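Exercise 7.
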Amino acid sequence: MTDNGIFMLSILISLALLGMLIVFFIRARRLSRSLEDQTREIRTLLKRIHRIDEELNFVLDFIRELPHLTGELNNQMNPRGIPEVLMNVVMRTFQPEQAVILLRRKRTLAQPDRDKEFIAAAVAAPRSTFDRGMVVAMGEGDLGYVAQQHRVLDGTELEREAAPHRNVRAKGVSAFRPDLASPMTIDERTLGVMALRRPNKQKPFSKDVFRVVAQMGAFALNNLQAYAEVKSVADVDPLTKIWNKGVLNFRLGELVFDAEENKLNLAVFLFDIDHFKNYNDVNGHVAGDRLLQTLARLVKEQVRIDDIFGRFGGEEFLLILPGKSKSQARITGEKIRAAIEAYDFPFGDKQPLDRLTISGGVACFPQDGRNSSELIRAADQALYQAKRAGRNRVMAAGAVVLAG
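Solution. The predicted structure, written as tokens, is:
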């Protein structure tokens, strides 16, 4: 082969090799891009798997909480303990920066619209302007708006829906802007509201989990209220819905023993309605029954949660005051007497004193009696002295006049 032939052959071989290199480079480039695409897909898939794993762990952690939550709620015998149980679960599950649980208030004779308000019963809010005991009215702010709903709402939904309910002057808990909030409802009646802000754990299932917690709280509150109503049927006076004489005697015996053992104060306030027979004779027994019911509700609003109040017989009532001295009991008795005198009872102006009034006697352990019978006897004697002195007054054992 000539030199020219060899040169041409070498050129052809070089061109062929170059072509092969170009083809290889193109294929390698395509493969590299394919690998990059696959790598991105794998990374996306891994992120998705990680997110699903986090969501699954979030739900599993809550499922592990459920037996403890159920047990703690079932062990609560007082509605005031339920918000704290729910708060503990919310804090462990969501790890929010702030959280609040509100309970619906009960209406009273003096405040018939109070059941349109919700009171902060449990609060986890460091560096916040609101605290336990603060009140939110139905429809006020985000929390008041949630109380009117029957669904869980997140921050975006609240921003969109609750804006008209916000008051720029609102302070404290009414100005709270939750990222997640749920009403606690039973049969379309809202018993409370749960809300949290800036949760550390916010997952797609957060609303579902939050709804379950709120619903369990609602069931616990409702069941406890129903249990209390059933349990008290045999212990309450059927007309006035306050404790009957049997319960009063039993509790007074227990408290006398406790006062003696622990050197505690204990007082009783025994009172009855002045000229009640005249009220019945003039207005009828139906009016008399309504009077007893109204008076019982009025007195219940004047006493502490630890006091024991009941119907002792006929128009006679007994208030047991644990921890109170004689002077403190006299102040309580006078407060009740004044509240009843000031209340506008139907047909009160037809009474001999131109008002519906009471007379009462106060006795204290151990000065006026060493046992329940002696205490009641001493209070009854003071009551009798109040009647003889002109009625509409409270007297303590020893004939100390409080009111003329």
